[in-house]
Amino acid sequence: MATGGQPQTPDNRIFLFRLQILVIDGGLLVMRNIMDQTLTFKCITLRACFSQEKTTITRLKNRGVITQVQYDVLFPTGGQVPTLSDLDITLIICLLRNLKCFGLNQKFDWRATPAPTDVSIEADICRLKDFRNKISHISTTTVIQQNDFTTMWNDIEQVLVRLSSPAVNIQQTIAEFKTIPLDLEEERRIEEEMKKLNDYEAVVKRLLLAMTDVEEYVIDVKKDLEGVKEYVTEVRRGLEDMKENVTDVQKVKKDIEDVKENDTAVKRGLKDIEENVTKVKKDLDEIKRRQAADVQPYCRKTYKGRGNIRITNKTFNIGIKQMSIGNIVVNPTSDKTDKREQVLPKPEKTGLFESFYSESSAREEECHQFASTVGMNAGSPRGNFIDTRDLFPITESVFESSVRVEASRSVCMICFPGGRATGFRVGTRYIMTANHVVNHILISKGYGQMGNNPNCLSTLQSEDVFALFEYKKDEPISEHQKFSFTAAVPFRDNETDCAILELEEKCNGTELPRSFKYFSLPRLNQRFTFIGHSLGKLMEFNHVDKIIDIGSVQTKSDIIQVKQKSLEHSGKDYDMPPHNILTNPKRFLFHCKFTKGASGSPGVVTLPDGRYVVVTMLLCGLPDWYYDSNVDARVICSWPKDHCVEQGVNLKSVYEKMYQENKSLCYHIFNVHEESSPNSN
User: Fold this and answer.
1) Which of 122, 424, 471, 572 has the most CB atoms in a 10 Å sphere around its CB?
2) pLDDT tops 60 at residue 340
3) What would the pLDDT profile of 164-213 be if each residue is shown by its tens digit?
């Protein structure tokens, strides 16, 4: 067996043979046991393990680590199943080191000598490799003495004991190996196994060297990539700078276009102003012509607005406030705004209560409302409760604005301790307003019922409770503008939230302001205008463009949502049963800008023939807590504005209720006058 070095003696030969048996057969025994224990613990078969790792095994074969013969052992043909006894020590070591299913550390350095303190499975397998290399070297170069044999035997025995499990009686096997006699066939077999292991280690060493070269090459490539990345970064910075320059040029171009558009808009605006001034002159000439014909004027004064001129399509004020002339608004110095609106941010709009009447649904509902009015013959209503649907188209012009100003003379601010509200003249000596306004007056002054008549309240006769007309300028109030109330309340109704108060005639002969004579239902999908004293300030106009379709599926869904959100946001109900509810059929829903102080404001449409018609009366806004000064301002101002909605009374419902309870008053207000000139008193 020896091919070089010192000649082997019989003792040397048997020592070497026994050490080779210990490493090869003992190592094979314990490593087969390691594979078996691992597969048993993971509850998978050897065949399943090889199937899962077939990609790795194929790669090892392609690299020359596993031979074709060994590969065929792992994946036999003909349906045979591989067993552990089919695997030699070389193949087992290769599989343990490379297959993940056996759980060894894939990052272990098999080239390094393990530290003495490292007793891991990987370290002991590596030590067996080193013992085998050392024994192979001894067999070709030198002899082995008794002492060296004993030391190496003990070291190998410790490694095998650590690698084995209690199920394998490795100590007894090792003892048998130590006394085994020399056998020529066994010696040849061991020599072949040693040669296989040497060849395997040579292949592994070659692959490791190749991997080292690849790793060095990868490091160099990474360094080159870093340089490329830096270059790309510089190129990107240059591109960003170019984009910024292009953006600046585009901004300059856009600014130039904006200047051109603004110049065009200014020219167009000046042309519109000239056209509107021409219309104003024509309308003023028409008013003068009618005055000359001894007709009651529609507008008794001109407007001397102060301040700058701006273009608008929205709210128009009266007196030295804002007034709409076509698209031109005289914008004087405005009153101080509500501090709450100045300080706290406006919430975002989220799109509720936007289902309005269409043209067809509006016409259908209007026909139903007029056809079902009680106390009227079939066909159109009679008297001063008129049908405006097809009588005249409702338009917007300077002349119509002047008619609306004339209508404002019949609107008053109701003053009482701790509050303000709005009302308007009806009948010979009456004021129509919201019933909850009367309730607030009674709360501020006490109930004050006179005798057994619940409709006679002495509280209304207090000096600090009065109606103030023509409050359009911020100047001292004259006595001829103030009118006191009598104790009579001839009509009050909670469901429609409507009340009629009676004015006291003045001893000095001052006439009561003229009253509204014409009433109707609103065109559900067209504009009407409120006239009132929002926040108890100077009289203002507020246009309402459309009425919300309470019967639409979308509005019904919005009502459910907004009630739930009210509870979540404030802990309070959105509406106030039984009457102040969103689904009250005797009221309309819409959006307007008026707020506290505007309850009782008439909603008015003007007709081209000079008549002004009341189509509703502003009652209240919802949710109720939104207008409660005791609620935290942060809760109020964080509530989305489009979640608020305002209510106006259906005057048809007021007509019907009054017809049932006080027929003479109903005829007096709604139906006593014959169709006549709008200027007749």
Assistant:
1) 424
2) no
3) 877 677 888 888 777 777 666 666 777 776 666 666 666 666 666 666 66
Task: Show contacts of 372-381: CB within 8 Å, 24+ apart.
Answer: 373/652, 373/655, 373/656, 374/655, 374/656, 374/659, 374/660, 375/655, 375/656, 375/659, 375/663, 375/666, 375/671
Which fold does the domain 339-671 belong to in CATH?
Thrombin, subunit H (2.40.10)
Walk across the sheet containing 466-469 and list its strands.
482-484, 466-469, 411-416, 419-426, 430-434, 498-502, 491-493
pLDDT in tens, 39-65: 888 888 888 888 888 899 999 889 888
- pLDDT value for 94: 85
What the block records as the tokens of 66 is 């596993």
Q: Which of 673, 676, 657, 604 is nearest to 388 (CA)?
A: 604
DSSP-derived secondary structure letter, 631: S
- For 606, the 3-state DSSP assignment is strand
Q: In whole angstroms, what is the distance from residue 203 CA to residue 217 CA? A: 21
3-state SS string for 243-312: HHHHHHHHHHHHHHHHHHHHHHHHHHHHHHHHHHHHHHHHHHHHHHHHHHCCCCCCCCCCCCCCCEEEEC
Apex CA 51: angle with CA 47 and CA 57, to 5°?
110
Among candidate residues 412, 407, 409, the one with its CA nearest the CA of residue 482: 412
Adjacent-strand bridge partners of 484 = 466
Residue 490's identity, in one-letter code, is P
Report whether 649 contacts 519 (CB < 8 A).
no
Which residues does residue 500 pair with via DSSP β-bridges, in sequence order?
Answer: 432, 491
Q: What is the DSSP letter of 148?
A: H
Q: In terms of residues, how long is the chain? A: 681
Q: Where are the domains of the chain?
A: 10-205, 339-671
Q: Tokens 């309309």, residue?
A: 588
Distance CA 487, CA 412 (A): 18
Q: For the residues 602-607, what does the mean pLDDT come to?
A: 94
Q: How far apart are CA 502 and CA 650, in angstroms?
A: 22
Provide the whole-model pTM. 0.47
Q: For residue 325, what are the contacts with CB-CB under 8 A and spacing of at least 6?
A: 276, 279, 280, 398, 401
Alpha-helix runs per DSSP H in 610-662: 633-637, 651-661
